[in-house]
Amino acid sequence: MKIAIAGATGLVGREMQKVMEEIPAFADIELIPAASARSAGAKIRFSGKEFTVVSMDDCLAQKPDIALFSAGSSVSLQWAPRFAEAGCFVIDNSSAWRMDKEIPLLVPEINAHELSRDTKIIANPNCSTIQLVLALAPLHKAFGLKRVVVSTYQSVSGSGVKGMQQLEDEESGKFGYQAYPHKIHRNLLPHGGDFLENGYTTEEMKLVNESRKILSIPDLPLTATVVRAPVTGGHSESVNVEFEQEFKMEDVRNLLSGFEGISVVDDPAKNRYPMPLDARSKNDVFVGRLRRDESQPKSLNMWVVADNLRKGAATNAVQIAMKLIENKIVWPK
Ligand code: NAP
Hints:
This protein is of the alpha/beta class and 333 residues long.
């Protein structure tokens, strides 16, 4: 099995390699790391072997079975169709294909059934969307979602190496590359992506539109505020949910803790609740601060945390690859 990573030198690409190294099924794959011309020729160690970073052209010429793309939207728009035409399954981390009606937007625990041999490009959702929908999915099935209000506190690693660099520079008193329009150290920016005419940002509208698509609720009332925080590894979300039906708190806890990929961390008496530092390098989504919204009926508050580079990106993409393999969609040809 040949697996390519386009963007292998980036934050998500490197995390993909770590996630795959933890899964025995990937130990013997032939890795094809690809990146921009700047990195061609660099060496990467994976599962005890050395691989050379190649250009996108060379990567395609090596005919990978699966390609995990994490090199930004323009690379995905240009290259994903060419890889797909060559018979490769592309799992794309960018926003390029997510809202295309023909392309599945996949969180394996929720909608893996949408994978098929005919759909060669598969979109990986936005990092903050993945952790949100994972926490909402079991509750929606049981009680029906009526309305969702989410505010995020997103890590600088969500902006790639440049976001990390700005925070590190500012922490050490240097002022170098600016990933954000303002200082991020000791600050919060209510600004993710670009501002749109409706006053929301592109990151906020991704949360709205992608959640609706994944959960198959096209008209779900969902409103979002995205905030960038000086945190290095993990996004947090304050989520308020109104349900169609009444619920018991005990059922909420049981549904969440029984759902694949979710860990409930909720013991206020011991100061135990999800935090980005604890979520770092973990594959699960952590949910806590579970409590009724006392301001209106049938409503719940929760706090949802995940490592954006793991379940928000690399882990979810690798899990999609695993489903393609386990369900014999990619192999044998
Ligand atoms: P990053 O750290 O800036 O890495 C970007 C990667 O893309 C690098 O490997 C870079 O290679 C490569 N690249 C840039 N231009 C290229 C080109 N023309 N051809 C081939 N490769 C090229 O960014 P990141 O955070 O890993 O994000 C990558 C993608 O994943 C983005 O689409 C992002 O929106 C998405 N994503 C990120 C997160 C997150 O939490 N960070 C979560 C979900 C999705 P060089 O090293 O050679 O420049």
